[in-house]
Amino acid sequence: MKTPLAIVLGALPLAACISFGAKPPPSLLTLSSSSPVPVGQVQSAANAPGLLIEVPAVPASLATARVPVQASATSLAYVKDAQWAEPPARLFARLMADMVTARTGRVVLSTAQAIGTPAGQLTGELRTFGIDATTREAVVTFDGSLLRRSDAAIEKRRFEARVPVGEIDAPSVGPALNTAANQVAVEVADWIGR
After folding, report:
1. Which of 69, 117, 131, 187 is the most buried (most CB within 10 A)?
2. Cβ-Cβ contacts under 8 Å for 66 (sequence gap 6 or more)
3. Which residue(s) pair with 163 in the sheet?
């Protein structure tokens, strides 16, 4: 009869050959704000209006960590070895929060942080967040819905930025999408205003 240790040791060479998922890419993509919030900056909703920024809705093509490429009007592919560190909608919401805080001075809250009624609420849909192969551009399209508590009317606006991309590969698409996302976030922050 084999001992439990002998069974475990016998299975180790086999375990090294088994893979339960795809090989991860060499690095993961993320977004960084061109206007980061200063470290140590204290904000108070008593001194500045609050704003709730929700993670935007996305179509199925963006509900993945992969970077979509619109190859034609009716076909979609993904950039080889390009993968986001977390869902792009969350990355974009965090980028917008940093940009709105830096440019407007508003206290930006997440859904979990919002207690009572904030001074405003930004929701929307991230409709495009990928590469257009026909124009060789990184494209970010965001349909924003803004509720300003002062008048209780919802405003809607579409934002889009296009940034040229030299090659459609993992090292090139990340910086181009980051630039496009920052351009959209600046426009959203200016729309929200002070």
Report:
1. 131
2. 78, 79, 82, 83, 84
3. 138
Superfamily (CATH) of domain 47-192: ABC-type transport auxiliary lipoprotein component (3.40.50.10610)
Q: Which two tokens stand for residue 7?
A: 């069974």
Q: What are residue 137's DSSP bridge partners?
A: 132, 164
Q: What is the DSSP letter of 65?
A: S
Domain boundaries of the chain, sorted by first residue: 47-192
> Which amino acid belongs to residue 120?
G
Q: Which amino acid, 85? A: A
Record the pTM: 0.83
Q: Are 186 and 99 in contact (CB under 8 A)?
A: yes
Q: Which two tokens stand for residue 3?
A: 């001992």
CB atoms within 10 A of CB 143: 16
